Amino acid sequence: MTFLPRANDALKVNPPTSVDIALSDHGSDWLWAVTAIYIISFFICLVPSFTAPENKRVFNYILVMASLTGAITYFAQASDLGWDAVEQTNHLTRQISYARYINWTVSFPAITLSLGLLSGLSWTTIVVNLFISWFWILSYLTAAYTTTSYKWGFFAFGTFAYVILAMSTLNEGRESAELLGIKRDYMILSAWVNLLWLCYPIAFGLSDGGHVIGVTGGFVFFGILDVLMLPVMSVMFLVLSRSWDFGKLQLDFSDYRGTRHSGHSRDKGSHTAIVDDVELPDRS
């Protein structure tokens, strides 16, 4: 006898047909919980942006976009949508969630961009790191869809890309952050991210790669990593950012935009005047 009827009927509405190894009801329950965490993370990042000065919202906006993407992709996964049936080496078909990789295509570059902006890395290095993060994810996605042992070649390319990204964020980023006087905060965030990133190749090898654990087990493993990666790191980022000098970090982008539009020079010691958005020498 049950006093409370089961509310989650996602697998009844969207049944995993034509697949041998699929998501379980309890796995769907877990994914709904992760969806809720991402939605909470979205509002945690969004609400302070309404009261924070415009020139201090850059991390709020970046993390808001990543959290919203995570929320909708986990909604799809919890609803048993956003997947394909891929054949394994034992000729059984298994659910492979492409929604998972869509989430990473936004969240990993968002984290990479946030760390790059904080550390003061050059834009060329940041762009390269963004490309490497996309390369990593797309290599894993290709490996997940490859039904032969050649998948491990794509896995190797992707993991090598992760190693490059880790070296850049832990080495170049640290050196640049030290020059700005925020080495401690940067290393807290960077070490946290890289510790979690290190677990993704392991999780992939056990789930979408090697099929050692089931579909539900893979969702649980990746769900824990994703929650620690974005929602938890977002809170850490926003809490630590309260003590940062955005002007010194050159992250107060809107100050420059406001200066250009208002026609007033931001540098009061400058011997130039701006008239109608054209900079002219001061003849006084």
Automatic annotation (TrEMBL):
Cell compartment(s), UniProt: Membrane
Tree of life domain: Eukaryota
CDD domains on file: 7tm_YRO2_fungal-like
Pfam family, one: Bac_rhodopsin
Membrane topology listed for this record: Multi-pass membrane protein
GO cellular component assignments: endoplasmic reticulum; plasma membrane
Membrane-spanning intervals of the chain: 30-51, 58-78, 98-119, 126-146, 152-170, 186-206, 212-240
Keyword GTP-binding attributed: no
SMART domains for the chain: Bac_rhodopsin (SM01021)
UniProt KW keywords: Membrane, Transmembrane, Transmembrane helix
Leader sequence segment: none
PANTHER family: 30 KDA HEAT SHOCK PROTEIN-RELATED, PTHR28286
Family statement: Belongs to the archaeal/bacterial/fungal opsin family.
Protein name: Protein FDD123
Organism ancestry: Eukaryota, Fungi, Dikarya, Ascomycota, Pezizomycotina
Gene name of the record: FDD123_1
